[in-house]
Amino acid sequence: MGLARAPFVTFEGIEGSGKTTQLGLLSEYLAGQGIPHVVTREPGGTPVADEIRRLLLSPREERVFPETELLLYEAARAQHVRAFILPALTSGKAVLCDRFFDATSAYQGFSRGIDDARIEEMNAFASGGLVPDLTFLFDIDPEAGFLRLPGRGTRPDRIESETIEFHRKVREGYLRLQAGHPDRIVRIDGAPPADEVFRHVRGWVAARLGW
Ligand code: T5A
Fold first, then answer.
1. Rounded to whole angstroms, how far apart are CA atoms 183 and 162?
2. Residue 193 Cβ contacting ligand 1 at under 6 Å
3. Is 18 close to ligand 1, i.e. is its CB under 6 Å away?
4. CA 87/CA 28 separation, integer angstroms
5. Ligand 1 atom nearest to CA at 23
6. Tens of pLDDT, residues 51-110
7. Distance (Å) from CA 17 to ligand 1 centroid
8. Prediction pTM value
9. Does any ligand 1 atom lie closer than 6 A to the CB of residue 185?
10. Domain made up of 8-209: CATH architecture
């Protein structure tokens, strides 16, 4: 594998794609194998980043402009990478992260319309050049994803309350990213039952990371 630090694995997809479920299954599997790892998510992962998460996701009357949204996601990421992700990786713990900078490319870039060059520059600045070793993209039709959300038992947040058209563009953005980074981003069909999806995840982590 040849990494100077533990592996960094990210989980991406539209709302209801099942990425949080798959991250949990992989964490259980790694715990069973005695592989040291931590689980985290974006936006969030530290007290400061969690405060930014609340700012970003609470439904509110005032319009939040795409530029504001981009800067807040990147601010949360800058804190998360330096205060949590890098210390874990360099101490030998793998990091499983629910969303990372590909979410910014898909949501703020492709769907909100901020240009790619700016997003790439901001992603690189906030992440300090850290790039995931492996990214899973759980792909599902947005209508099917939304049908799953009531099962979670939480109310839709500010981004989930966007139109279905917005989420279709996010999906398209993710597929375009996967096509541009086929070695790093693995697309997995998110529609089958969770245990079936997880068989693919296990296959990939065995092949790519030796887990
Ligand atoms: N965002 C985030 C940006 O705009 N830019 C950024 O840079 C970043 C980092 C984060 C929001 O912020 C946006 C994207 C998001 O809108 P969040 O609360 O973290 O918000 O929400 P999500 O990441 O969207 O997480 P969700 O929980 O909504 O979706 P998941 O993770 O796809 O779904 P999951 O696994 O929780 O499953 C949802 C339901 O489906 C069931 C589960 O049991 C659960 O009930 N389920 C399945 N049912 C049938 N078959 C399967 N295979 C299933 N897998 C799960």
1. 31
2. yes
3. yes
4. 22
5. 35
6. 999 999 998 899 999 999 999 999 999 999 999 999 999 999 999 999 999 999 999 999
7. 6
8. 0.96
9. no
10. 3-Layer(aba) Sandwich (3.40)
Is the pLDDT confidence value at 152 over 80?
A: no
List, in order, residues 6 or more apart from 121 with CB less than 8 Å away: none
- Dihedral (CA of 60, 61, 62, 66) sign: positive
Q: What is the mean pLDDT of residues 24-32?
A: 98
Does the CB atom of residue 135 touch ligand 1 within 6 A?
no
The number of residues making up the chain comes to 211
Q: Is the pLDDT of residue 2 over 60?
A: no
- Nearest alpha-carbon partner for 103 in 165, 192, 17, 7: 17
Q: If you average pLDDT over residues 8-33, what whole number do you get? A: 98
Q: Is the CB of 113 under 6 A from ligand 1?
A: no
Nearest-10 Cα torsion for 44, 53, 150, 12: -50
pLDDT at 158 over 90: no
Question: Ligand 1: which residue has its CA nearest to atom 50?
Answer: 193
Domain boundaries, the chain: 8-209
Mean pLDDT of the chain: 96
For ligand 1, whether the C-beta of 106 sits within 6 Å is no
